[in-house]
Design a protein that fits this description.
α4 links the parallel β3 and β4. The chain has 11 helices and 12 strands. The longest helix has 22 residues.
Amino acid sequence: MRLRALARALVLSTAVLVLGNVAGAGPKIGVLLKSKSAFWSAAEAGAMKAGAEFGGEVIVKSPINEGDVGIQIQLLEGLLAQGVEAIVIAPGSKDTLIAPLAAAAAKGAKIVVFDTRLEGEQPYVFVGTDQRKSGQAAGDLLASLMAEGAPVGFLKHNQTSGATIQRELGAFERMRELRKDFALCGSMYVGTEKGAEKDRVASFFDQHPEAKAVLASSTPATLALIEVLKERKLGGTVKSVGFGFNLTPAVAAAIEQDVLQGWVAQLPGAMGFDAVKAAVALCKGEPVPKTITTEFFVVTKKNLQEPATQALLAQ
């Protein structure tokens, strides 16, 4: 009997210890992404890393398709029902999520918004890339590659993407500053129909064969631009700078072959990491800056082989 009692006591004490470890594991953080694409998978990896490092229990949810705001709202409600103490969200809409997040905050949840700002002034911490600044960096690079007065084309994403619009504005401003006589020969929205990016880029060159420099403000536009430049043997003749995240072998090869002269890369892993780090700090009552800026990385042929650039291939 004594042995049984001792065994039961050991089991109970072990259970208490286990429960204590779970309770002491830190705040429960709900991370809500825009989709399951490679970009958001990298953000998820960064979020999980921060949870492990700073003692947060991280639960990640995302719609299958980016832009499915209704599903994102349902997932937000589900995370709140699970008792999360903080919500880290990359909102699929800059205005539709305002009311649901305000309701979550009213219930006591800490809110960290990342990647895409909400419309208007918001009381939440924001983590993300300074898109205007990244656009200016692209404008700097493209201006250094083109001749005075060279015709320039902009391959835009769409009319509702806040991030790419800021990039485009930043690039235009800087190029106007550095090349006062630069000629914008044409622009085209490439991201209005998924899967049609390459056809639209080809159409741009059909309409503007005079273009000697091109800026592509999104990943799909940049990848389509690389394909069209290769097929038409325009690599190097038309100077090009695009945007994306991290670095892929295909993009690295395009830069090495002088098809693409610049790749302005967001770092989604760092963004996810910084957002969860901020959420854990908020839950612990620690001070957190209102805005946390995640750096971007400009890849060119000059720095392609450097260790910091090559490290992007593994992310």
